[in-house]
């Protein structure tokens, strides 16, 4: 076990949970986790003031899983979430953290899906129920005993639940659980209505809040970019094209993410390396020295690994994953703007993390303006500018040194100086896309699914409360004409990245890169867009394909 997972070990979590954390690559508890986990483990009721992005899900999931008895096949923990989307996310988180707990089952209960299988999973002994209030009340109407064995209750995003009008449902649910249960409430804000619930249904709750001192940030130009989680790599690659950086440090949350992103950058020709808590001290020093002297230009690090890193060459900090709190943000971006120089800090924000952005702005007292993802024209202009800058200094004396050679070569080949110059450029630029059409073809971002999505459109929260109008479904992203969506049960938790799926399908399916559309890797499954034409034949070809040692088993995916 690494010394960093020790940060979790010191909190008193069950060894099986610690093993799962090592597997997902968390290095240390986030501030809300460090505070909440001991309180929940001790059995006290708790109110946690925290928003998405602080690590709040693990803050309650880890201690609750530590306390559950998997041998008892009855519901022990109930997590209430305002939306189907969040319920699914929380259920996935519980599944991830309970990987090493045989016999532990989680059921997600939400509207828009048949009730039968949900009830069956509960009756078969799922110990954790993650539910939206409306659907859970429907279940209670059928079987008022469903919640009679609950020992741990969590209200996640309680303020959102009230905003969505779930107050009455919550009352029904409270009544159906044993009074002796432990209750935990998480909410980004604590309006009067939330305090009233806490007063009535929680017993002497302990309050937990991450203290946010006002922080000052100077000499650093800050900007944020809205992006979807599965488009982050592509967004980073595009930003790097247009950002004029000397050295850059990118921050991510897990060890695996340092490795994945550093590998993606290296593959594009950047001098990049990963820095995480697993990397031995001497290797770490080598990486930092290389960044100092220019053998490396980019380091992708976790917060833990970047501690104490001081490299004056760093002009850019990229927050690829959101920091857990404003302090950590300020700390991260302080890696640039050293020694009186100006620096630039970029922050990638997924739709669910907008609130965290507001908190950062409030605490730092500064607006973090929005930048848009550079379009293909901007990428092309930046490439040509770089080429111009690299060639311009050579022109002055090149004619004196190589002019005669040029004359001879044009005569020997029988071509114009323009033709020869063009051939030399092709060689010098080594296949790089330098026309608009080529740049467009190269860009992995799918139009309309990246940061270019208009504001106000909340794709990750497309999940309405279940009784708001027709029973909701997560709105599928529109499919391009002639494409079909396919699903595999391999996902991020199997260590799969989009490039692994792409590689396998290209190699074994005999497709061209352009035939494959968007690839979305989720925690426990992935979706791939493939040509409708010849799909059955293709799936046949891929029948025995394995990715990362596991069977791909790609199937046509129907949204219903
Ligand atoms: P949440 O605030 O619960 O929505 O969590 C935000 C993201 O942080 C999720 O993707 C988690 O997987 C990730 N996360 C939570 N805790 C940690 C941790 N201690 N180390 C690394 N990543 C974490």
UniProtKB/TrEMBL annotation:
A GO molecular-function descriptor: RNA strand annealing activity
The protein's name: ATP-dependent RNA helicase DeaD
Compartments reported by the entry: Cytoplasm
Primary localization: cytoplasm
Biased composition (Basic and acidic residues): 454-475
Pfam families documented for this protein: DbpA, DEAD, Helicase_C
Region listing for Disordered, in residue ranges: 439-479
EC numbers, comma separated: 3.6.4.13
Functional summary from the UniProt entry: DEAD-box RNA helicase involved in various cellular processes at low temperature, including ribosome biogenesis, mRNA degradation and translation initiation.
Residue span, Helicase C-terminal domain: 235-388
Gene Ontology terms describing biological process: cellular response to cold; ribosomal large subunit assembly; RNA catabolic process
InterPro entries: DbpA/CsdA_RNA-bd_dom (IPR005580), DEAD/DEAH_box_helicase_dom (IPR011545), DEAD/DEAH_RhlB (IPR044742), DEAD_box_RNA_helicases (IPR050547), DEAD_helicase_DeaD (IPR028618), Helicase_ATP-bd (IPR014001), Helicase_C-like (IPR001650), Nucleotide-bd_a/b_plait_sf (IPR012677)
Domain DEAD-box RNA helicase Q: 6-34
Catalysed reactions, semicolon-separated: ATP + H2O = ADP + phosphate + H(+)
Motif (Q motif): 6-34
Occurrences of domain Helicase ATP-binding (ranges): 37-208
UniProt entry keywords in alphabetical sequence: ATP-binding, Cytoplasm, Helicase, Hydrolase, Nucleotide-binding, RNA-binding, Stress response
SUPFAM superfamilies to which the protein is assigned, alphabetical: P-loop containing nucleoside triphosphate hydrolases
Protein family per UniProt: Belongs to the DEAD box helicase family. DeaD/CsdA subfamily.
Any one GO cellular component localisation term in the record: ribosome
Signal peptide (residue range): none
């Amino acid at each position: 076990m690494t010394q960093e997972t020790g940060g979790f070990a010191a909190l008193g979590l069950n060894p099986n949970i610690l093993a799962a954390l090592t597997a997902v690559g968390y290095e240390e508890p986030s501030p809300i986790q460090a505070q909440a986990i001991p309180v929940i483990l001790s059995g006290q009721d708790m109110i946690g003031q925290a928003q998405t992005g602080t690590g709040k899900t693990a803050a309650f999931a880890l201690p609750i899983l530590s306390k559950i008895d998997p041998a008892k096949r009855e519901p022990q923990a109930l997590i209430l979430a305002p939306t189907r989307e969040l319920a699914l996310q929380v259920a996935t988180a519980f599944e991830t953290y309970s990987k090493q707990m045989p016999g532990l089952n989680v059921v997600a209960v939400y509207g828009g899906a048949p009730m039968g299988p949900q009830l069956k999973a509960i009756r078969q002994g799922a110990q954790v129920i993650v539910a939206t209030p409306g659907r859970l009340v429907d279940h209670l109407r059928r079987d008022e005993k469903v919640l009679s064995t609950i020992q741990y209750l969590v209200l996640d995003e309680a303020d959102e639940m009230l905003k969505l009008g779930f107050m009455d449902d919550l009352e029904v649910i409270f009544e159906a659980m044993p009074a002796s249960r432990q209750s935990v409430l998480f909410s980004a804000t604590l309006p009067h209505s939330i305090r009233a619930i806490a007063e009535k249904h929680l017993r002497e709750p302990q309050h937990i809040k991450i203290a946010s001192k006002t922080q000052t940030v100077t000499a650093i130009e800050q900007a944020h970019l809205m992006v979807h989680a599965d488009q982050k790599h592509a967004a980073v690659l595009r930003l790097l094209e247009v950002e004029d950086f000397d050295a850059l440090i990118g921050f991510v949350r897990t060890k695996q993410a340092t490795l994945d992103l550093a590998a993606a950058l290296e593959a594009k020709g950047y001098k990049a390396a990963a820095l995480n808590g697993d990397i031995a001290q001497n290797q770490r020093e080598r990486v930092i020295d290389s960044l100092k002297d220019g053998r490396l230009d980019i380091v992708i690090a976790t917060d833990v690994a970047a501690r104490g890193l001081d490299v004056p060459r760093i002009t850019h900090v990229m927050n690829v994953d959101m920091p857990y709190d404003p302090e950590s943000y300020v700390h991260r971006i302080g890696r640039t703007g050293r020694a009186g120089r100006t620096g630039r800090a970029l922050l990638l924000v997924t739709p669910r993390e907008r609130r965290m952005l507001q908190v950062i702005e409030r605490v730092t007292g500064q607006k973090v303006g929005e930048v848009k993802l550079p379009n293909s024209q901007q990428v092309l202009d930046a490439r040509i500018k770089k080429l111009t800058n690299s060639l311009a200094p050579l022109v002055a004396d090149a004619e004196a040194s190589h002019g005669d050679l040029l004359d001879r070569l044009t005569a020997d080949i029988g071509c114009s100086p323009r033709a020869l110059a063009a051939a030399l450029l092709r060689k010098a630029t080594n296949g790089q896309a330098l026309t608009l059409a080529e740049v467009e073809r190269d860009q992995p971002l799918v139009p309309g699914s990246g940061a270019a999505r208009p504001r106000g459109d909340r794709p990750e929260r497309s999940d309405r409360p279940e009784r708001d109008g027709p029973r909701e479904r997560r709105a599928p992203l529109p499919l391009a004409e002639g494409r079909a969506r396919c699903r595999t049960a391999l996902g991020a938790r199997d260590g799969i990245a989009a490039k692994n799926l792409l590689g396998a399908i290209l190699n074994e399916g005999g497709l061209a890169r352009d035939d494959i559309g968007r690839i979305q890797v989720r925690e426990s499954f992935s979706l791939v867009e493939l040509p409708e034409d010849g799909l059955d034949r293709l799936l046949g070809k891929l029948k025995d394909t394995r990715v990362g040692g596991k069977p791909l088993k790609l199937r046509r995916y129907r949204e219903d």
